[in-house]
Amino acid sequence: MLKLTDEEKRTLQGEDGRLKQVCMQYVVEMAEIAGASRLVDLDGTGDMHSPGLALSQHYQITIDELREFAENGGRFKIPTFANKSPFPEFAPVHGWEHCHSCVRGDSSTMFSNPAHHKQSLHEEELSIMKKMGLITTHSCANYLVMSYFPSVGQHCSWFESSQMPYCNATLGARTNFDGTFATCILGKAPYYDMHITENRLGTILVETDRLIQTDLEWDVYGFAIGEAVTVNVPVVTGTSRPTTTQYEKFNSAIATGGAVRMYHLPGMTPEAPTIEHATGGKAFQKQVMIDNKVLRDTYDLLNFRTTDVIDMVYLGCPHLNIVDLMQIAHKVDGKKCKVPVWLATAPWLYAAAKEQGYVDIFEKSGIVLTTGTCPAAMGSLPAGVSCIAVDSAKQAMYLTGCYPDDDNRLQMAYGSQDDCIDAALTGRWRGEWR
Amino acid sequence: MADKIRIKGRCVYPGCVEAEALVSPKPLQGFANIDTMNGYTVERRHPLFKVPYGGKVLVFPSPRGSGGFMAYGLGPNPPAAFVYNHATPLTVLLALQAHTPSMTDFERDPMEIIETGDMVLVNATEGYIEITKKSK
C-alpha cells in the first residue's frame, strides 16, 4: 500500500500548481502499479527522452503549461540529461543532410529534408526546458559527455535500456527504468526494484569456457547472458577487465537479449569486490554455462543473411566514444569506402571529433558522422540497402525489426569493428566467429 | 461443461475481461520489434512473429529489451489483458500506457497451464485468472 508524505499529498492535490500535480499523478500511478510502498527522494541524476511532455496516453502537459511553469521559476529538481535526439522523430543532430532515408516508412519526407529537420528538433519546447535546467546531451550513451556522475548508492531516474546496467552495475548508483519529465521535475520516483539493496544481489552465477576479452566477445556474451537470465541479476565471470567500449557493448547487449538492469563482475563493478559481496553471502539459485558453442550460436543468431555483399555499414550502437572515433579514423585514413558508412556519436563529441581532425578524415573516406540517433531509432535506411554490416547485437536485433516484410526483409552482417571496416572498404563480408 | 482452472495472483492493473489466450513462449520485445498498427511482434525468429495479439489475453514470461516494450499497450488494436510471470519496470511502463487488466506473481506458473486458444478470464480486480481449456 502506497504511503505519501504530507508534502507529496499537497502536490497531488494541486497546491504546487497543475504541472506538478500531473507529474505527481503519473508518479503515484506508477508507484501503485509497481506495488511500491513509498516514493524515494532522488539525490542522483535524471535521464529522459525529450521533450517527453506526453507522460503516457493518460497524462499530458501542454507547452503553455510548460512555459508558464518556467516563467515562474520552475526548474528540474535534479540534474537532468536528455537522452537521444528529440522524440518522436529521433532525427540526427549532425550529419542529417546526408541521411537520405525516409522518415519511418513515409516516402514523402526524408531525414535530409531541412523542413523536417527543423521540426524534429522541437526547439520551442527544448529552449524552455533548457532554461529549466535540462542538459541536452541527446545521446543513448549520454554518460559519455555528461561530466557529472551519480556516485555509488545515489538514487537516480534514467530511461534507456543500455543505461540501466550502466547506472546500476557499472556506476553502482540506483535507477529503475522510469526517467521521465515527471520524475525529474519532482525529484521523486517509486521506491521499488533497483532502489532496494536486496533486489540488487546476484542470484545466478554465469560462467564461460572462453576468456571474454575482445569488444565482439563482450557484445556476444552480453546478449547470450541476457537471453539466459532474462530479468534476473547475474554474477558474471570469465572476463578480462572491460574497457569503456566493452562496458558500452556489454550493457546494451545484456539489456537487449534480456532485460538485465543489474549485474556484478566480481572484482570490477563497485558492489562486487568479491562474489560473496555480490550475492550477499547467499547461495546461487542457478548456475549458467555460456560456453563457446552458445557464443557461436548467439553470433549466428545475430547474423541474418544469405549474402556476403554489403550495401551499407553502421557503427555507433551505443554511441561511439572518442577513442572509438580515433581508432576508426586511423583505420580509414587515406582510404575510400566502397559503400555508404554511417557512424554515430553523442552530439557534444562532434566538436571534439572535428577538433581532432577525424571529421575531415571521415569526409575524405566517404563516411558520414551522425549524432544523437541511430538507424534503428530512425526506423529506416537509404533505399536499396538490403544487407547492412554492424558491430552491435542491439542494433542488429532492432534494425531488422524495421524491415519485417518478405519483399524488403533486411539482412544483417554482424561482427567486429574491424570486420565492418573491412566490409566498408571492400563491399564484402569476411567476418566470422573465430 | 469444461473444467475451469483458477489461479490466484497479484493485480498490476485492475479490471475484468475474458478473452482467448495468445501465449508467447519467449519474452517479448518492443521498440523497433513491434508493429503497433497491425498489432503484432516483428522480432525475427520469434514464435509470435506477425501473430496478431489484438483483443487477446497476451501471456508471456517476461519483457526484454528497450522501454519501447510499453508499445504493447498502444495502437488501434492492443491486447485485452496481460498475464506474465516476471514484473519489472518495463511491465510497469506497459500498464501505465495500456490501462488494461494485468496480473503477475501467480501461485502457479500460468505458462504451464495456458495454451494459445484457451479462454482466460482475467479478474485483476479480485486477484485471479480462470482458464477454460479449449476443446481438443
Short description:
The complex is a heterodimer of chains A (434) and B (136). Chain A is built from 17 helices and 14 strands. Chain A has 434 residues and is of the alpha/beta class.
Question: What descriptive keywords fit this protein?
Answer:
heterodimer; A: alpha/beta; Aconitase, domain 3; three-stranded parallel beta sheet; 17 helices; 37% helix; B: 136 residues; Glucose Oxidase, domain 1; eight-stranded mixed beta sheet; 1 helix
Please characterize this protein's 3D structure.
The complex is a heterodimer of chains A (434) and B (136). Chain A is of the alpha/beta class and 434 residues long. Chain A has three domains: 6-86 and 122-195, 2-Layer Sandwich (Aconitase, domain 3), CATH 3.30.499; 201-299, no CATH class; 303-426, Aconitase, domain 3. Chain A has 17 helices and 14 strands. In chain A, the strands form five sheets. Chain A has a five-stranded parallel beta sheet, with helices on both faces. In chain A, α3 (63-71) packs parallel to α5, α8 (215-229) runs parallel beside α9 (244-257) and α8 (215-229) packs across α11. The mean pLDDT of chain A is 97. Chain B is mainly beta and 136 residues long. Chain B has one domain: 3-Layer(bba) Sandwich (Glucose Oxidase, domain 1), CATH 3.50.30. In chain B, 7% of the residues lie in helices and 34% in strands. In chain B, strands 1-12-11-3-7-9-10-2 form an eight-stranded mixed beta sheet, with no helix packed on it. A two-stranded parallel ribbon of chain B has the order 4-8. A two-stranded antiparallel sheet of chain B has the order 5-6. The longest helix of chain B is centred in the C-terminal third of the chain and has 10 residues, at 89-98. The two termini of chain B are 13 Å apart. The model of chain B has no long low-confidence stretch (mean pLDDT 96). The chains are: A alpha/beta (434), B mainly beta (136). Chains A and B meet through α2, α9 and α16 of A and β2, β5, β8 and α1 of B.
